[in-house]
Amino acid sequence: MTTFTFEGATVYLPGEIAETNVTVADGVIVQIGGAAQGEIIDATGKILAPALIDLHGDAFERQLMPRPGVFFPTDAAVIDTDRQLAANGIATAYHAITLGWEPGLRDVARGKDLMQAMQTLAPRLLVENRVQLRWETFAFEALDVIEWALKSPLTPSIAFNDHTSMTMRAYDVPIQDRAFELSPDFSIASLDDDRMKRRTASKAKRAGLSEEDYISLLGKVWERRAEVPTKIADIAELGRAAGAPMLSHDDTRAETRSFFRELGAHVAEFPMVMEATKAARESGDLIVFGSPNAARGGSHIGSLGAGDMVEAGLCDVLASDYFYPAMLSAVARLDAEKRADRSTLWSLVSSGPARAMNLTDRGDIEIDKRADLVLVDWPDQQAPSILGTWVAGRCAYRGHPAG
Questions:
Q1: What does the angle CA 362 – CA 367 – CA 373 come to, to the nearest 5 degrees?
Q2: Contact at 8 Å (CB) between 179 and 253?
Q3: For residue range 142-165, what is the model confidence (pLDDT) as tens digits?
């Protein structure tokens, strides 16, 4: 690989922003400051920052199924998703592949096919495509696939999800007020109530089932509840043995966070209420919120506002969640709202996720770190945009504006 220098950029360094040169050789950062070496990339008036790391993104589902029930070829979906990532400055992406008990988009077999396609296509992809095993804890049929994935080159993380209990909560309990899912105090809804049809209609459509068939399947899966704690412990043991980062999803109680922490899951992903968020912070767990939440100015389901959590020092990571451009948009909005200084805000999409995923080789512009970098155009009072993305020193995307 050639040696090259970004010259004259405003560089986002750990804890400071400085106008300086950054030199890359053999895929790593070898010099900050000093004379330019090798090829010169004129970055005058632009920002050079660590590339984005997305630890939870499921926007790829729109490439797999652009319309309800209409599936697209997996290879084409993976390639298009990869190009979107590069153009949005995301050099490392953990695709949140749901391994659930539903048929259709989130079926276990479809998830495995997607992971196999990612491995086959890896030499042709622009960025580093990794996997978050977004496991629905009632989906016992996923255990073999999880064990297979943990031995694969995809270096996955594991996220413990329980949308089954969430769906089965009593009708008078808001989603944010539900008890710890494994608690004997968890109040349960009746399946033969018309309100269950309304609650599950979108899920049934996603699964390609009638409302009646979906509810019937839900009832059969719910019968597994007594076995769920043992299965969670089994998966956590596999995760610990593989050194996989582990996360709990949508926590609503300190008890929930404590349960998963004790199993080795030290990341709270999208906690819904302050009790769970503070419990994570007090125990030193890392906290993830969604970039769309921050970019839009609040949660679309009435949970905690990501901007408020950033300002309160209760957010370490912003993930793309369901929209890749939201990561950069979130940084821009939080900057405009003065929620934190720019170094802190940028860390939420770079060094923060690197720390959460134990990626010690990237996330900051430092000598000997991997040269995962983005060149950003961010005029005053305007939206930022990505001009270039480099992954381990290789140019994955370069845009040349018409102006």
A1: 45
A2: yes
A3: 999 999 999 999 999 999 999 999
